[in-house]
Design goal:
380 residues; alpha/beta; 2 domains; ten-stranded mixed β-sheet; nine-stranded mixed β-sheet; 3 helices; 34% strand; LiaI-LiaF-like transmembrane region domain-containing protein
C-alpha cells in the first residue's frame, strides 16, 4: 500500500504542511519570515538591480585641457591673445562640443575619441583662421599721416559720422580724437568700445570736450559723430566689432581725457576688456555703465550729484567712493557676489556712507550684478 510518507503533498515545500507557515501572534511566520503571503507561501522580493554608472561628460575636461594649453602657450610666449579675446571668439565651440557629446557620448570609447578629435580640429581650424597678425616695422616717414579727426563747427551744426579707419592688414594708424567745446555749457558723451582696453580720466581742457588716442585692432573701424543743440553737445565714439582678432603691440587701447570745465552725462559700454574710469575731477550728473566681460574700475567724482545705473554683466565692477562723500548705492545681484568695504552702512536696501543724509550733491546709484561681481570700496 502506498504511504503518504513517501513524499510531500503537492504545494507544500519541504514536506511540511500548511501549519508550518502559520503566523504567530507577532505576525511572523514560524519560519522566521515576515511580510505579505501568497497563496503558496511568502512572496519573493528580488534584490534591487545594481545602480547604473552615470555617464561623465567630457566637456568639462576639454575646457580644462584647452585652458591649460592656453596658459602654457602664454607663459612660453607662443600666444599673445588675452583670455577675454579667446572667450569672445571661441565660445560657440563649446556649444558644438556639448552637442556632439550628447549625440556620441552614449556610444562608447571610440565615439568619445572621435569627439575629442573633432573638437581639437574645430579649435585648430579657428585658431589658424584668425591667427594674430603682428605689426610690421616700417621706416619712419613710410606711412602717410592719417586724415584729421578734429571737427570745428557751430554749436547747432549737425556733423556727419566720421569716416572709418581703413583696414590695411598691417599695424593700424593711431586715431587722434579732439572735439572742441565751441561754446557749449553741458555735454552728453557716449563711448562704446568692443574688444579694447578703455582708460578715461578728467583733465583741464579749456577748449576741448574730449581728446585722446585710439589704437584700433586690425579690422576694427573706429567712428564718431557730434551734434550740439541749445548749448548741449552730444558726442558718440564707437567701433564696429573686428572681423579678425589681433593682439599686436598697443592694439586695442582707448586713452581718452574729458574736460572738467562743464557737466558731462556719461554713458559707457565697455565690451570685452578691462577698463579704468577715473572721474574724480569731473562733474558727472548722470552715469550709466554697461560692462560685459572684464574688470571695470570706476572712481566716482569728488563733488556734485551723481545718479545712474551700472550693470556688471559677467565681469567685475569695482566702485570707488571718495572718502567723506555722501553716497547711497543699491546693489541687485543675480547669482553674482557683492563685496563691501568697512565704512558702509546697510539701510533700507542701500549701502550708505555715514555722511549720507539725502543731500542734493550725493551719489545715488543702482548697481546690478547679474553673474558678475560688485565691489564697493572707499577711496582715500
Amino acid at each position: 500500500m502506498h504511504s503518504d510518507a513517501g513524499g510531500p503533498p503537492p504545494g507544500t515545500p519541504g514536506g511540511r504542511g500548511p501549519a508550518a507557515f502559520a503566523r504567530d501572534e507577532g505576525g511572523r511566520d514560524e519560519e522566521g519570515t515576515s511580510g505579505p503571503r501568497g497563496p503558496h507561501g511568502p512572496l519573493y522580493h528580488p534584490p534591487p538591480p545594481p545602480p547604473r554608472s552615470r555617464r561623465q561628460s567630457i566637456v568639462g575636461p576639454l575646457v580644462l585641457i584647452f585652458l591649460g594649453l592656453f596658459f602654457l602657450g602664454q607663459s612660453l610666449g607662443l600666444i599673445e591673445w588675452s583670455l577675454w579675446e579667446v572667450v569672445w571668439r571661441l565660445w560657440p565651440v563649446w556649444l558644438i562640443v556639448a552637442g556632439l557629446d550628447m549625440v556620441f557620448g552614449q556610444r562608447g570609447g571610440w565615439a568619445r575619441a572621435l569627439l575629442v578629435l573633432i573638437a581639437v580640429a574645430i579649435v585648430l581650424g579657428i585658431v589658424l583662421g584668425i591667427q594674430p597678425q603682428r605689426a610690421i616695422d616700417r621706416p619712419t616717414g613710410a606711412v602717410p599721416s592719417s586724415p584729421s579727426r578734429t571737427f570745428l563747427m557751430e554749436p547747432s551744426e549737425r556733423v556727419p559720422a566720421a569716416p572709418s579707419l581703413p583696414v590695411t592688414g598691417q599695424q593700424p594708424e593711431p586715431v587722434t580724437i579732439a572735439q572742441p567745446l565751441e561754446g557749449i555749457s553741458a555735454a552728453e558723451v557716449r563711448i562704446e568700445s568692443a574688444v579694447s582696453v578703455l582708460e578715461i580720466r578728467g583733465g583741464d581742457l579749456p577748449d576741448l570736450l574730449i581728446e585722446g588716442t585710439v589704437v584700433p585692432l586690425i579690422g576694427e573701424q573706429v567712428q564718431w559723430d557730434y551734434d550740439a543743440v541749445d548749448g548741449t553737445g552730444v558726442f558718440r565714439l564707437y567701433s564696429d566689432k573686428p572681423t579678425r582678432i589681433s593682439s599686436g603691440p598697443r592694439q586695442g587701447e582707448w586713452d581718452l581725457v574729458l574736460t572738467d570745465r562743464i557737466p558731462i552725462s556719461l554713458h559707457l559700454s565697455t565690451g570685452v576688456a578691462d577698463s579704468d574710469i577715473d572721474l574724480t575731477r569731473l562733474h558727472v550728473p548722470e552715469l550709466n555703465v554697461e560692462a560685459s566681460v572684464g574688470e571695470v574700475s570706476i572712481k566716482l567724482p569728488e563733488t556734485g550729484a551723481v545718479k545712474g545705473t551700472i550693470n556688471a554683466g559677467i565681469g567685475e565692477v569695482i566702485l570707488w567712493i571718495p572718502e567723506g562723500r555722501p553716497a547711497r548705492i543699491r546693489v541687485e545681484t543675480g547669482i553674482g557676489s557683492t563685496s563691501v568695504a568697512p565704512g558702509f552702512l546697510y539701510r533700507d536696501g542701500y549701502y550708505v556712507t555715514p555722511q549720507y543724509a539725502d543731500q542734493e550733491d550725493a551719489v545715488d546709484l543702482v548697481v546690478t550684478g547679474g553673474v558678475g561681481t560688485v565691489d564697493l570700496r572707499i577711496m582715500d
